[in-house]
Amino acid sequence: MTDALRAAAETMKAVRERCVWSQQITHRDLVPYLIEESHEVIDAVEDGTRADLREELGDLLWQVLFHAAIAAQDPDDPFDIDDVAETLTEKMVRRHPHVFAGAVATTPEEVLVHWNAAKAAEKRERRSVLDGVPAGMPALARAQKVLGRAARVGAGDDVALAAHDAAEIGAAPESEDELGDMLLMLTATARANGWDAERALRERLRTLEDEVRSAEA
């Protein structure tokens, strides 16, 4: 660990040990802050300055350090930030055999083959392609992830076909259930075109927000 990262870890350790608020915080208590900081990083990437990105990455790193500091105090199964870093390094070396071993990958597609093979070997206990898809993901992003996993086992083709048919006839939903079907179809369309449905909606919302602020001016 570099001196700067070590200093950040030691700062977090001191805060955890001496700040009465931080002493009471659990992993579960931190979840809302982790979600908020993650979205602030996304905002900085998509609509911020370099300074914004640098600051928000630091705030996100603080969340990782905070979780590690809490974990280090667990009486039954403690681990610290060094253990987290060691586990990460081992995983990334394992998943990049074309960098750290004798495997060959000359295209991004070949890199993904190595990555997925290593990941499958690590997750042998999984029984479904859907295992590991976080339930707490935003619905559009999760739909796109599930559709991608479904394609691996030949499922979800009816959704893509329905999306194509709906686009041709200009179908409109008449109930909340039909709205859900339509949103899933639109997500399938995004996936088929290599688009990010969640990002597309975020960026369109930013345009709308600009319009609202202009109208208020």
Automatic annotation (TrEMBL):
Q: What is this protein called?
A: MazG family protein
What GO terms are given for molecular function? nucleoside triphosphate diphosphatase activity
- Biological process GO annotation list? dATP catabolic process; dGTP catabolic process; dTTP catabolic process; dUTP catabolic process; TTP catabolic process; UTP catabolic process
Domain NTP pyrophosphohydrolase MazG-like: start-end pairs: 26-100
Q: Which Pfam families match?
A: MazG (PF03819)
Instruction: Report the domain of life of the source organism.
Output: Bacteria
Q: Which InterPro entries does the entry mention?
A: MazG-like_dom, NTP-PPase_MazG-like_N, NTP_PyrPHydrolase_MazG
Q: Which PANTHER family match?
A: NUCLEOSIDE TRIPHOSPHATE PYROPHOSPHOHYDROLASE
What is the native source organism of this protein?
A: Microbacterium tenebrionis
